[in-house]
Amino acid sequence: MTPTATYRLQLQPAFPFARAAAVLPYLAGLGVSHLHLSPVLEAVPGSTHGYDVTDPTRVREELGGEEGLRSLARAAREHGMGLVVDIVPNHMALVPRHSPALWDVLRHGPDSPYARWFDIDWDAGGGRLLLPVLAGRFGDELSRLRISADAGGTVEYGEHRFPLRPGTGPGAGPADLVSVLDAQWYRLGWWRLARTELNHRRFFTVAELIGVRVEDPEVFDATHAKILELVRDGVVAGLRVDHPDGLADPEAYLRRLAGAAGGACWTVVEKILTGDERLPASWPVAGTTGYDALHRIDGLFTDPEGAAELAFQYREFTGLPADRGGRWEPTRLRAAHRIAGRELGSEIAALTRLAVRACAADPSLRDHAPWALSTAIRELLVRLPVYRPYRTGGGTASEVLTPAAAVAAKAVFASAAEAGAVDAVRDLALGRAGGGPDREAFRDRFAQTASAVRAKSVEDTAYYRWTPLLSANEVGGDPARPAVSPADFHAYAARTARDHPANGTVLTTHDTKRSADVRAGIAVLSQAPELWAGFLERVTAEAARQPGGRAPDPQLAWTAWQTALGFGFPYEERLRAALLKGAREAALHTSWAEPDEAYEAALSAFVAAGPAGPPLHSVASFARELEPYVRADVLGSVLLQLTMPGVPDVYQGTERDYRALVDPDNRAPFEEGPATAKTALTRAALTLRRQRPEVFGVSGTYTPLTVSGPAEGHCVAYCRTGEVVAAVTRLSLRLERAGGWRGTEVELPDGVWADALSGREVRGGRRVAAAELFLDGPVALLVRERDGDDR
Length: 791
What we know:
Helices cover 43% and strands 15% of the residues. The protein has 27 helices and 27 strands. The strands form seven sheets. An eight-stranded parallel beta sheet has the order 16-15-14-5-2-1-18-17. Strands 19-21-22-27-24-25 form a six-stranded antiparallel beta sheet, with helices on one face. A three-stranded antiparallel beta sheet has the order 6-13-12, with no helix packed on it. The mean pLDDT is 95.
């Protein structure tokens, strides 16, 4: 059954299945049809997110085990609800002491029955798997390594435990520690080696998450047996597939998953679409998890002229050069070069090895030097305009790779002859050239790496380097063009209703960098950039009078004050943590690998003396001034998400006022709280969806309503299946400054309509004044009660 709406709960030891069951009455009353659970399979002990799976064959004991999950499903059914579960096919945690499969691989090497589970290049490691866990170089850490006779012999290093290869442990004859370690199927190395020497596929740049080869049917069966059992037993009714772009062949995987699930599951994929990119039509899924909808909704409440003015102010205030944060595209490209050339060096090396062998097996591609192939791979990856190319999809791969190759060839190669390496790499990535088994391996690995380069360079680097309007820097967004017109929104919604009517929609997730309420508090600045300029000048001066109140760099100051304003109540520790994470991700002044203690101390001092210090009264005052307009945007966003085509996912707590920053700030255990105007709107819309699934479901229609008059650009309205009308006010601050609605009208379909929020009746079949439509607030949710000629 397709859900009418889902509610995301972040499971963790502090919020297990039993606590989820306890909130079922509240969630049923809210109107959702399904609980959406974060990963439920066995994970690293203490994990607050569950994406670090250690054993896909068991339900996580810390959450209550399989019986706890089945009990939750029974309780949910009693409340008329089902379960949707997040699954993680791409990777597992490389924490052997908690993973039976990895433990066996480390003990028995390539002969282990589990060795085929993992994407390990044994040849590249000299027959050994590199484990970059040492705090320093091997020689410096040798004294901290111990051999134990426990569990058949283990290597101990801090909290780490690794098995010994049979016949190499205590009692196996005279051997020193180094000899024992050298005899293992793995090599313990300095953590910094992960950048360049790693010989396993990982999740992005996380060496502790190892890639799983679900393209192998036996591996798929073994790693999906438990979740598919839960589907067959009716415990799980829907699946959210995490990071499908990391898989060798996403479409083949999804077809296998759909077949194994027997068509019984509503399935969505965490696919990030860029610009006008479309989800491949051949994928057997309901749609994406909804970041594409998030971008369109956020964009409606962003003023394009004001956003451009903020970008100008930002460049003036920060003085940043174009490629270090002054302009978007040069910043993105510089970040991509850093990620591809530095953070993902191991991945580029692996691709180069494959390319060299594939070219050697094809006479037409021989004699391309390894350095040229490596350079071509890197330059092509950084210029892809999307997350990855696909094997199929109507020429999509060629359409993406061919223009990128043309630009890459001119960028770095001195001669046309050397630039031929780019064409060779392009053809390898398209599967058109090369020889032997390495040709297909290269194509798959190139696409997998492309998604890592894009995600790390855009979401985790450039988004923290280019920050004129922080609300635009969200997954799936377009910081260079953050605004979306009503016409573009209607076109997107109509396309969704036609192509993927059960697509997911979201406003806040466990991965959003700022919750929807925080983003709304920042996006409103695009309507009044001159007010922002005055505020920034005022608080900068106020902070400068405090010890430590001068920011260590102007970009941080800009980012901090916008974050504080959107956050609304800048608790010092939460704000500091988010800003520190952002500075390390940006890697301009400090980074995770090379933290600058002096810079980070200055950052902390600035937060304490500035946004969380005496200038806080100015932040609060400005926030109160903007509050009515922020409220209009918040309510408008909620109504759009809950009534537009698709299946809305409500993140835990966001039916109330909810302000959270980047993880882990947004992953605290769920707690019930006081109802707000947003709660009432959420309950009204979700209840309506559940009562009238035919209006919003896969057979429902979407019809934009005509708005005419001097303020027509400030209203978005549409009708769902002739029975429900949603109308929202957009850019309300600009609307007020322009004199209000001034005779603007909305063409309301025939009938007598009741506002689901106020109960007030509105007669249709006419042009209704926008001022009348929005008499009770900035949004209207109308339900058709009877024909217009009924009395």
